[in-house]
Amino acid sequence: MTAGWDHDVDVLVIGSGAGGMVAALTAHDRGARTLLIEKGDLYGGSSAKSGGGLWIPGNHLMREAGIADSVNDAMDYLKAVTRGREPEERLLAFVTQAPEMLRYLVDRTRFRPQCMPTYPDYYPDQPGWRGGGRGIESTYFDARPLGDDLLRMVTYTGTVMMGRYNVTLNDAHDMLWRNPGWAKNLLKVFGRYWFDLPWRFRSRRCRDLSAGAALVGSLRRSLMDRDLPLWLGTPARELVTEGGQVVGVVAEREGRALRIRARRGVILASGGFEANQALRERYLPQPTDAAWTVGNAGNTGDALSLGEAVGAKLNLMSSCCWMPVSPVPGWDSPASVLFERTLPGGYIVNRHGARFVNEALPYIDTVEGMYASNRPDAPTIPSYLVCDATFRRKYPFGPLLPSSAQPDWMVPRRLRSFMTKADTLDELARRIDVDAEGLKATAARVNEYARTGVDLDFRRGDGAYERFYGDPAVKPNPTLGPIATPPFYAMPIYPGDLGTTGGLETDVHAQVIAQQGGVIPGLHAVGNCSASAIAGTYPGPGSTLGPATTFAYIAARHLTSQ
Ligand SMILES: Cc1cc2nc3c(=O)[nH]c(=O)nc-3n(C[C@H](O)[C@H](O)[C@H](O)COP(=O)(O)OP(=O)(O)OC[C@H]3O[C@@H](n4cnc5c(N)ncnc54)[C@H](O)[C@@H]3O)c2cc1C
Predict the structure, then answer these.
(1) Which atom of ligand 1 lies closest to the CA of 499?
(2) Does residue 543 line the site of ligand 1, with CB under 6 A?
(3) Is the confidence at residue 2, as pLDDT, over 70?
């Protein structure tokens, strides 16, 4: 041990989300003595809460599924979506390295992804667009080899069906639309859960992981396979420099400061600042509230102060992976309102009872529409998603299953305040403090649009993303249905997020850029603590995890090749 240090490694990775885990695995596999430290008592960060989609253009799974892609097409699409706000060389680094990163994970770790062949890129009007395949997700990961370590993974009720069952996005889509094989798959999900004895007596938690939990679970097990240490409850407090180079970290462990030397360097992967109210007020559009994020509670922007203290430059600080959300009593994060905005018959209205945005747009754009339309004389924060009994019978509604499976009388008492219910639109409007005449006029308009299939106000249902989340059985437009059958329902909608995407500016190798120009030697940053590599845009399913894991792979390779 070198004098003055308590611990000595080659590469130190800070933060145990997908970015941190991929960085640690890659560095280890290239021969570096690697340590991963995590501030919380649980590992996985927002990655473990997430849907676990990764956007990887040109990936081998889409090729195997017969979907062609090319570097040129992916670049055309990214350049169009990012509109010149990102250096082309960074986009190219992402496009060329992402498929290689995925291959590495499949060949060397326990991560077993599958293609999402029909989940389209989000902007069909742009050149190089693909109607599916660039988004991939994990298959089910059997968490038995994790043992009790599973109980130390962050979890989120919103991605667990009925608070118990894990379902992949591919299966959820089939189940929702009763595609061939859906019932068999559902029975398998129930069976695997209830036949998992004696674990059923130990924990409610399902050991068949899907989505972000499967991604993180498989990576966690891959760390264990290598005896690669993950220290929980160990926040990084300070970067240590020598002659302008980052050479280690002061972390806190069991109440005392611990000096960890990192001979090759430090990779910051400590997530965004979504849980930090002061930073939200400083950088994000207003109003803003940390209670509206679905992101990990430990993501308080620590990398910003750690980086700034050694001269790092920040960028894209108002960028966020926006998501309309609705608070659910008893949940520690709000519900992401993903399906309800696109399913036919759910419409979002402002205080005047008027629509102000195409509700079915990709989530980032819907929230941007909320902010753009928010005026003192017509507030949109909160706004309300309104629907009728037919919608409620057929589709999920926040934390509730369709009323055909979970009638209102079966909704647990603690969840009842989540929704407002009334026999008439007048009464519903009164209860949510929305103008009743405006709401009735909106209902009349959308009922006509549902009949003709054309939303004359916002062209809802024109886009491929919108139709992907619509109901294919509803004609002529799978995203448009009437508000006609009492009782009527409403849930409040806030401009929430899945995490901030601004942070430390980095180069093609994920090295942190200094305010004075040049890079800060020994310091890399990946994932949401770094400024988004795709200019804070969301081109397709998995647009934060795809770049986070890719630049984690790039950073670790770069550090270990020096
Ligand atoms: C419900 C939900 C669904 C989502 N679905 C998707 C999806 O399908 N596809 C997609 O691309 N994105 C999705 N996202 C967004 C995605 O999860 C995040 O963008 C991504 O997980 C960020 O990864 P990360 O590794 O940068 O950070 P995180 O996974 O958040 O990990 C950061 C970790 O760093 C730790 N940390 C913080 N400070 C310190 C410190 N000082 N010292 C040590 N550790 C520290 C944190 O506690 C945390 O564990 C979703 C998010 C949510 C919440």
Answers:
(1) 19
(2) yes
(3) no
